[in-house]
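Hi team, as promised in this morning's meeting, here are the two structures we talked about. I've kept the exact order from the run log so nobody has to guess. The first one is mostly here for context; it's the second one we should focus on when we meet again. Sequence first, then the predicted C-alpha cells.
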Amino acid sequence: MMTVYSVWAAGLGLGLASLLAIGPVSADVKYRLYCANGKLEVDTRTPEQMQRARGQVCLLGEYDTRAQAEAAADRRGGSGAPCTCP
C-alpha cells in the first residue's frame, strides 16, 4: 500500500524529470537573421522551417539573443528592409 509520503515523492520525482527534460531544449534557442522573399526578418525558426513557411530564404546570421539579431538587422536597414541572398 502506498503511503502519502511515497505518493508525494513519486510526484516530485516526475516533476523534476520533466523540468530536466525541458531545460536543454529552451536553452538551445537561437535568433536568426534571414533574407526571406527579399526582406530582412529576425526569427527563431530553423532554416528548413523558414523555407517551408516563406519559400525563398537565406540565413544571414545566427545569434544568442534577440537584441544581437535585431542589431545585425539594424546594420542592414532594420527588419523589413530589402535584402538579397548572397
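And here is the second protein, the one for discussion:
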Amino acid sequence: MKKFIYLFTVLFALFSFSGCEYNYRRDGLTTLFLVDERGFSYADIPYKCDSMRSWERTLPNGEFSFFPQESCTFDFGRLDGMYGDMYDDVVRITDDLNRGKGGIPYDCTRFKGVYTYDDGSFQYDQYDTCVFHL
C-alpha cells in the first residue's frame, strides 16, 4: 500500500510540474497590433489593461493582448500624434492582416469620447497616455 501511495504522489507531482495545467488566464485573449502608416510595428510601447497587475510592453511586431470588454492604457511617450504637421507619428491599431480597427472608443488628455478612424489611426498629443475601451 505504501508503494501505491508513493507512486501516486510521484505521478501527481510530475503532472503538476510538467506544465500541463490549465491556464485560464490565456483563454479568451484578443491580440491586436500597433503599427505606423506604412505598416511598420511600434515595439516597446508601455500598456496596461484592466486584468493586468503591471505594465507590459508591445512586442517587437507591435503585438498586445487583452480580454474583450477591457480598457487598456497606452503611454505614447515622445510620439507626436497631431495630424497636419511634418512630425506626425501616426499609430494605427490593426489585426493580424493589417486591417485597421476603426470605431474603438478612446480618451486621451485632449481627445475625449472619440473613436479610432476606419484605418485604426487616432489623434493624440505628445506625452499622452490614452485609454482604449476595447
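Starting points for discussion:
Residues 10-25 have pLDDT under 50 and may be disordered.
The first strand starts at residue 30 and ends at 35.
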